[in-house]
Each structure stands twice: as C-alpha cells, then as structure tokens.
Amino acid sequence: MMKPYKIFLALLFTLAIIIGIRYTNQNYNQIEKKAYGDGFILAHEFNHICYNEDRDVIISVEVEDGSLPAGSSLGFFYKPARLSGYEGEIGYTRYEMKQALAYPDRYEIIIPRGEKGDRVLYYLELNDSEGNEIALLTSEQGAESTEETRLMFAGQRPRYLFLGHVIVMLAGFVFVSLAFLTALSNLKDKRNNTILGKQIFLAAIFIFVGLVPLGSLLNNQMYGTYWKGLPFGIDITGSLGFIILLYWLIMMILMKGSAFVSNPSKNILPPSGARVLAVIGFLITAAAYLVPHGTGEF
Fold first, then answer.
1. What is the dihedral of CA 287, 290, 295, 296, to 10 degrees?
2. Exposure pattern of 240-270 as b/e (b: 16+ CB <10 Å)?
3. pTM
4. pLDDT tens digits, residue range 189-243?
5. Rounded Cα distance, 254 and 273, in Å
6. Is 166 helix (H, G, I), strand (E, B) or coil?
7. Is residue 140 scored above 70 in pLDDT?
8. Where are the domains of the chain?
9. 38-153 domain in CATH 2.60.40?
C-alpha cells in the first residue's frame, strides 16, 4: 500500500500541472499585442483558436491614446494557411477594416469561418495615403515572418466528452507521479518493485484511454479529424500524445513481471534502469502536458 504522503505529493504534482496547463494555454491562445505610432496605439487580441462554429469571425483593433493619422487606412492581410509554403503560393489579400459605428475607436472586419481544423494566416498593417507602412501588428511582434499569426477554426467541444478526456488524462498523470515517487525508493525490494510495475501499468492504461478513444473522438468533434499523432510531426499535440503513450506502453512491457504477475524477477529492466526511466518518463510526460493544445505544426 502506498504511503499517504506519496499520494498527497502525487496529487500536488497533478494540481501543479493543472495550473500550468491553464496558464500555458491561456497565454498561447489569447495574446494581446500593441503597436505604437506617433500619437496613437493600436491594440489587438490574437485568439489563435476560434471555437464558435455558428457565426462569422469579427476581427477588431482598438485605437488607444489618440487617433489614426489623417488619410491612413488599416489593412487586414489574410490567406488560408494551406496555401503557405508552396511554390508559386498565393500572397496575402488586403481588406480594409472599417470603423465600428457604435465605437469610434474600434476598427473591425468580418471574415467567414472555415471548416473545423482549417487555419488562416493574417496580420494587421496601418498604411498612409501612399500605402507606406506606419504600424504592424502580428502575434509575434518583431518576428521576421508575419506568418506566425495563425487562426484555427474549431467546433464546439462536447462537455462530457471533454471532461472525460481531462479527468482520465489527469488520472494518468497521478499514476505517472506515483511511479516517479516509487522509483526513488529501494527498487531491489520486491514490494516496491511490484508497486512500481502496477503504477506504470495504470498510467499506461489511463493515458491510452484518455488519448485513443476519448481524445480521438474529441479531436474529431473539434478539428474534423480523429488523430494527428501520425505521421509524426504533423501536429504538436498529437505527436506529443503519441510519444508519452508509446513511452509508458514500452515501460509496461519492460516491467511486465511486476505489472502483470507481481514477480519482479520476470522484468526486463533491472531496478536501476527502472528508476532512471521512470524519472525520465515523469519529466517527459509533465513537459508534454504543459505544451499548449491545438498549437498546430512543429
């Protein structure tokens, strides 16, 4: 039986992961950027994922601490992401943003939403009457390429499916944390080694259930495809999920004696190897969980 303090620490690690996930996803998916001009500030909040599937998307820019120069125009430069990176690719199309009727310091443009999983690239540029750039807004201010700004369309996520996915994945992390804590003990002791094998087995099962049936169904509802983990490298979230799932399945096989028949002598891994790989697995899993979801290509 696990000692209560180890269970408490595992739950504490999981709570830290929950806080970290909320922070990293919020800071990736909602980024406010400002561009400073002579007597004015342009402010825009970049939302990298658009969840509303029933309405067109309103892109807005606020003018703060002043007004736009006389004769200037605010341009919205836009193209589908799938057209990027190909020889002879289509360039950005410029659309002029209009002043909002009820809010004179706000400029807006409405773009039709795409299908689930579609991505578009855009940036905002203020030009003078001759078309010269006065100010530029991208999600990566100062980046060499404006193509850093991506907007991905997503369907509404079913509440119960989403909660099931989250709960099961967090349960998997609890057992990953327990395996990490057990790995720090004396694994030459049969009891500790057996406990580690069982924890690795449960971690692998929970991660499998959270990713394969639940994660795939959720991904299809939101992005129109079941799995982006293969081919490897197409999608960060899917690929990292594939890595941690494969890692713990392999660990389960290497610890098969402890995991399945409570007999550490049938393990492929010696105690020292099990300790090292359990610690590495904990670190890899924690890092993968903290990567913002839906970040797209590498």
1. 30
2. bbbbbbebbbebbebbbbbbeeeebeebebe
3. 0.79
4. 999 999 999 999 999 999 999 999 999 898 888 888 887 666 665 677 788 888 9
5. 10
6. helix
7. no
8. 4-26+157-290, 38-153
9. yes
